[in-house]
Design brief:
By secondary structure, the protein is mainly α. It has one domain. It is built from 8 helices and no strands. α1 crosses α2, α5 crosses α8 and α6 packs across α8. The N and C termini lie far apart (about 45 Å). About 5% of the residues have low confidence.
């Protein structure tokens, strides 16, 4: 991984409109974006080598288009990247479910690359639904789950982005995981039943 301070400098420069910094930033963060994408995709069907690349490419397009974000540092960037990737996969899973049920939902052109089994799509949607419910009850815990589980951020990085103590992140992380586990068991059972 590249020097975090250098990545932060590039993000700040890009925020100020320096397009050249974006050209240097993309290769500097590519490995970490692939790692985040791989975390998402490792739960899917094996043998589709373009999955991670397609997810990273879609995320690149959305991240480059982020004009209203004031990047704090590399941890903040990767937290947003994880959120973007999560949204891409959830939209894809929901589109597949709607198509299966005869809906006319707009489709992402990722069908050739993302192969989600029905069960995996349902699990992903159940997790997303539970995370949305958690965020309504406790927004900070929702963000912590997103950053830790999906983004792979450490306790320290998550605390830095959220501007809270590491002990707060640790406690919220434990409580949020327990709450999500219970919610997913209930919600996923109802969805399948």
């Amino acid at each position: 991984m590249r020097d975090p301070a250098h990545i932060t400098e590039l993000l700040v420069a890009w925020n100020r409109g320096d397009e050249k910094s974006l050209e240097e930033l993309i290769p500097a963060v590519e490995q970490e974006l692939r790692r985040i994408a791989h975390r998402y995709m490792r739960r899917e069907n094996p043998g589709h080598t373009l999955q991670t690349t397609a997810l990273v490419n879609e995320a690149y397009l959305k991240l480059v288009d982020q004009t209203r974000v004031s990047w704090q540092n590399r941890a903040h960037f990767f937290a947003i990247a994880a959120q973007v990737m999560r949204r891409i996969l959830i939209n894809h899973a929901r589109d597949r479910r709607a198509a299966k049920r005869g809906g006319d939902a707009a489709h992402l052109n990722l069908d050739d690359v993302f192969v989600l089994s029905e069960e995996k799509a349902d699990e992903l949607i159940a997790l997303d639904d539970a995370l949305e419910r958690l965020a309504k009850i406790d927004a900070r815990r929702g963000k912590i789950v997103e950053m830790r589980f999906f983004g792979g951020l450490s306790i320290e990085e998550t605390a830095h982005v959220l501007k809270v103590a590491q002990s707060t992140v640790s406690q919220d992380w434990r409580l949020a995981r327990a709450w999500l586990h219970a919610e997913i068991q209930t919600g996923y059972g109802e969805m399948r039943g």
